Amino acid sequence: MLFDIDAPAVHVNSNKHTTEMYVNFTQYVAYKCDSDRLISNEAKWSFQTRIDYDKPNDNVDSSSVSVGHITPLPTVPHYSHR
User: Which domain holds residue 63?
Assistant: First the structure.
């Protein structure tokens, strides 16, 4: 079995009021069993988050990691310009 131990991160920018991220990832692994066999696979996954820094307490509106890609990716922001 293979395990992936890293995770996406969101960096706080004090100059912004909101942050949105919608990111698709594809990971690939290959293993050579012997001189004749190569086993490989890829995994698609996604990360999305919405953060409103102007909210006083829990400012994370949503945050999730999912199997598969986000389709379609949003073409307009969730938050309006401040």
Answer: 21-67
Domain for residue 5, yes or no?
no
Give the whole-angstrom CA distance, residue 13 versus residue 22.
Answer: 17
Contacts of 24 (CB under 8 A, 6+ apart): 44, 45, 46, 69, 70, 73
Residues 6+ apart with CB under 8 A from 6: none
How far apart (Å, rounded) are the C-alpha atoms in residues 65 and 46? 6
Per-residue pLDDT tens listing for the chain (82 residues) = 666 777 777 777 767 889 999 999 998 888 888 878 888 889 899 999 999 988 888 888 999 999 999 999 999 999 998 8
Could you tell me which residues are beta bridge partners of residue 19?
Answer: 51
Question: Is 3 within a domain?
Answer: no
